[in-house]
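sry for the spam today, last one i promise. struct tokens for design, 161 residues
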């Protein structure tokens, strides 16, 4: 019996399959860790911070993340327009708020009175709203609604002192 010959194509497929976890990890949204640090970066770039409030068990959050926010986060042109961070409700993960105070994802969401998910907030470097929050996922024009809120936020940042 002839030994198995793993040809070039087979080796390429195996390498690709082994790389899938890295590709999937790269597609994840950045979880908020320090809004004080994010605020400094957003201030320097003069861009808003889009905060995506989610829950692990929320199917609508998965749609918003997968279909809209991850593609936006991966778009190189979007990096000059918006900084995206995810905050998970009911999560005890530590977080520094905009003033650098220690809190958790759950407490941060509660302090901002976020109860429904997904919710998108568009904030300046001080944590102030630049555009109305987007609550829920609408199948029609959801991406356009997000883009409009980013544009509105950018316009406010560039005209307000």
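last one done:
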């Amino acid at each position: 019996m002839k030994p198995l010959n793993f040809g070039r194509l087979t080796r390429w497929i195996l390498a690709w399959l082994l790389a899938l976890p890295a590709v999937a990890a790269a597609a994840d949204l950045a979880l908020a860790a320090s809004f004080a640090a994010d605020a400094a970066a957003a201030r320097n770039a003069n861009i808003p911070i889009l905060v995506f409030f989610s829950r692990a068990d929320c199917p609508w959050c998965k749609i918003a993340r997968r279909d809209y926010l991850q593609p936006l986060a991966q778009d190189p042109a979007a990096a000059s327009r918006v900084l995206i961070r995810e905050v998970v409700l009911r999560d005890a993960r530590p977080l520094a708020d905009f003033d650098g105070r220690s809190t958790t994802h759950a407490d941060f969401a509660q302090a901002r009175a976020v109860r429904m998910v997904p919710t998108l907030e568009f904030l300046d470097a001080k944590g102030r709203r630049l555009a109305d929050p987007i609550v829920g996922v609408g199948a029609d024009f959801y991406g356009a609604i997000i883009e409009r809120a980013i544009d509105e936020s950018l316009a406010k940042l560039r005209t307000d002192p």
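Residues 8-27 form the longest helix (20 residues). ok im logging off now
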